Amino acid sequence: MDTLRELLPFLIPIILLQLALIVVALLDLARRPKVNGPRWLWVVVIIFINFIGPVAYFLVGRQEE
User: Fold this and answer.
1) Contact, 49 vs 55, CB < 8 A?
2) Cβ contacts of 36 within 8 Å, gap of 6 or more
3) Which pTM was predicted?
4) Based on the number of CB atoms within 10 Å of its own CB, is 12 exposed (0-12), middle (13-18) or buried (19 or more)?
5) How far lies 48's CA from each of 9, 28, 33, 55, in Å?
6) Do 25 and 46 form a contact (C-beta atoms < 8 A)?
7) DSSP states of the chain as a string?
8) Are 47 and 53 contacting, i.e. CB atoms less than 8 angstroms apart?
């Protein structure tokens, strides 16, 4: 329990960054008319693959209009 309290100041910014990445990626996915691959698959990747999922969407999934 003491270890968790010691790590909490370092974990909170990481958790907030992860949540922000997920929200921004999902909003971008919802607003973009075309993406590479099926949308439902990008939703699964963004939500369930921590850090790498949203970053992969921004690098590979987005399709320029």
Assistant:
1) no
2) 60, 61, 62, 63
3) 0.81
4) exposed
5) 24, 17, 23, 12
6) yes
7) -HHHHHHHHHHHHHHHHHHHHHHHHHHHHHH-S-BSS-HHHHHHHHHHSTTHHHHHIIIIIB---
8) yes
CA-based nearest residue to 57, from 24, 25, 17, 18: 25
Ramachandran region, residue 23 (left: φ > 0; alpha: ψ -120 to 50; beta: rest): alpha
Q: Report the C-alpha gap between 5 and 22 in whole angstroms.
A: 26
pLDDT tens-digit map of 6-54: 888 899 999 999 999 999 999 999 999 999 999 999 999 999 998 899 9
